[in-house]
Amino acid sequence: MKKLIRIFSIACYLIAVLLIIFTVLSIFRNAGIRYLKMLDFPRIQMFIIIIINLFILWILIKKWRWYDYLITIGLIAGLIINAVFLINYTRIVPVKVQGINKVKPSEERFSLLMANVKMSNNRTQPLIDLVENEKPDLVLVMEVDEWWNKKLEILDEEYPYSKQALNELAYGMVLYSKLPLKNVEIDYLNNKNVPSFESIISLPGKKEFVFHSVHPVPPTYFKNLPDNAGQEEKALKKIGKQIQEDKRPAIVAGDLNDVVWSYVDNLTGTQNILYDVRIGRGFFNSFNANNFLMRWPLDHVFVTKEFRLKQLKRLPKIGSDHFPVFVELVL
To answer: Residue 75's domain spans which residues?
Structure first.
């Protein structure tokens, strides 16, 4: 029994040391090194494991030595570091995008459903059912290839306006809209195989806003898929510059392949122009739908100051590794 307890103690110490190292390295998430950026993703998990590890060590340690104090201080520091990133996606902090319950006659409301369907997923009906149930004004679908595009043609009758940029590399994108789309441009901001849309959307009351649909590549490497190895991911900074110069109401939405943790300015290169609808509301973890223990927010909506939030929710599974996200906004 004593031997098992000793082995268990050693394992706890090793886990503690790794947690401290990983948390400290995660501070350098914007250093341009993909392995450091990947440590930015599992902050929720590291935060929880650090609490469990601290609790176990305090039970196991009978006689405190210098390294026990050192490891405890390191774990508490790790807890604080991760908390600094996580706290903005909790109700402890005030929201950045104000909520609204009653819409004034001068204001216009509209909704967006966005979903990364995962190209290899062949279950189309769950997404179609969600669209029928939620009845969004805009539907943004990512990882769309020719097969998925054909299956989604059923939406054409309800959504007379649409734009497609299809490919077989998991970065195809389709935008469906009940609202008129003006001047839709397909941009390739940082990779010739990764499209994004810039659309001007007209609301019934004649108000307009710019809608940026984007799906940049992740920091991890996937064989035979687009990759930005050796260069900085600049797509969102380019969009941020456009919004900063344009001055019109704007929305940025999509699978950003980044957890963000509310640091929108760092990601987009803007300064208090774009606001994360999650701040002060919750994590709404959209990835990984297939793994309860490894989830974090990857699908995001940023808006300029003119918008108010009516509703934000994560929708049920559709067979993808992402949960769809639904947002209702007021302009």
So the answer is: 2-89
Residues 199 and 266 in one domain: yes
* CA 318 to mean position of chain CA atoms: 17
If we measure between CA atoms, which residue out of 297, 279, 263, 325 comes closest to residue 99? 279
The two counts, helices (H) then strands (E), for the chain are: 8, 12
Chain-centre distance for alpha carbon 270 = 18
Q: What is the pLDDT of residues 26-43, one digit of tens each?
A: 999 887 788 888 999 999
Q: Strands (DSSP E) along the chain, which ranges?
A: 109-116, 138-142, 161-165, 173-177, 181-187, 196-202, 208-213, 250-255, 275-276, 299-303, 308-314, 325-330
Same domain, 286 and 321: yes
Rounded to whole angstroms, the Cα distance separating 206 from 208 reads 6
* Residues 6+ away with beta carbon under 8 Å from 46: 19, 22, 23, 26, 78, 82
Is residue 114 located within the same domain as residue 72? no
40-95 pLDDT per residue, tens: 999 999 999 999 999 999 988 888 899 999 999 999 999 999 999 999 999 999 99
Would strands 275-276 and 299-303 be described as parallel, antiparallel, or unpaired?
antiparallel
Other residues' Cβ atoms within 10 Å of the Cβ of residue 12: 19
Q: How confident is the model at residue 4 (pLDDT cuts 50, 70, 90)?
A: confident
